[in-house]
Amino acid sequence: MAFYGRSHALRPLIANQLKYNLLSNEKNFTKNVLKSILRRNSSNIKLSDLSDRYKTQFNVVHTASSVEPHFVFANNELDLSDIEVYGFDYDYTLAVYKESLMYLIYDLGRKVLIDKYKYPKDILKLDYIPDFAIRGLHFDIENGLLMKIDSFHQIQLGSVYRGLTPIDDNEVLNLYNGNYVPQKLIRSKAGGEQLPMKQLNDLFSVPEICLLSNVTEYFIKNNIPYHPEILFNDTQVLTDDVLRQ
């Protein structure tokens, strides 16, 4: 089988580098072969010749069957001897949490709302809903809406909730003049000022979102006037209170 164009000559070499993470001396050999291909008539170079040169140079054949499934592969350009300090993320790396922790955070937060902020005691009847929310959702503080916004700042229609109630897509489009959210509304700047939208993406966001949504739903169904921003700030503060207990 002959190479019939320069692009075809490059493909096996590039694929080989990506697949097997070639060592530096192998890379130098590959560069030399590429230069040879570009200088000469590529139609005269056969794949078998290139393969033989590679095997002769390194006396090794990489095959999928020879890869140890329990090996850990890393960037070979990183010299661990140059690293003096290793850091590890705490949550889910050094510490693994059980699902019961989410219930505990929710229950303690609910208690703080009632005892410290004097919310109605009926909130004690609002149970934690484990499958209601996920980490990474955004909350529109002014309008009191929970939603999913993708990496292109597009509101995912069908994901917008007020309390536990989904909001109609047309209402969302009218409220935001479309489904695009400007970056300035969701990306914080230096100074730490509160933005109109807050992403809830840490470990404790799921029970926090559930409590926020449950209380919102309770206020709406019982015709109790409330301010979304105050409710949001109360639930944000109570998370810190819970963690200090």
From TrEMBL:
Pfam families, per database record: 5_nucleotid (PF05761)
Gene Ontology molecular function, alphabetical: 5'-nucleotidase activity; metal ion binding
Keywords, ordered alphabetically: Hydrolase, Magnesium, Metal-binding
Top-rank lineage group of the source organism: Eukaryota
InterPro entries membership: HAD-like_sf, HAD-SF_hydro_IG_5-nucl
Xref: SUPFAM superfamilies: HAD-like
Record's protein name: 5'-nucleotidase domain-containing protein 3
